[in-house]
Amino acid sequence: MAVVLITGGGGFLGMALARVLAREHRVILLDSLVHGEHQRQVLRRSGLALVEADLRDRDALDQALVGVDWIVHLASLAGVEQVRAKPVETMETILSGTSVLLDACRDRRLERFVFVSTSEVYGSQARDAKEEAISADFDPTEARWSYGAAKLAAEHLVMAHAKQHGLPACVVRPFNVYGPGQFGQGAVHAMLRQALRGEPVLVHNQGDQIRAWLYVEDFVAGLLKTLESDQALGGVFNLGNPAATLTVLDLAHKVAALVGGVEVKHRALSGAEVDVRVPNIDRARRLLGFEARVGLDEGLPLTLGWLSGQINEGINEGQERSHA
Question: Which segments within 66-159 are labelled E, that is strand?
Answer without folding.
Answer: 70-73, 112-116, 125-129
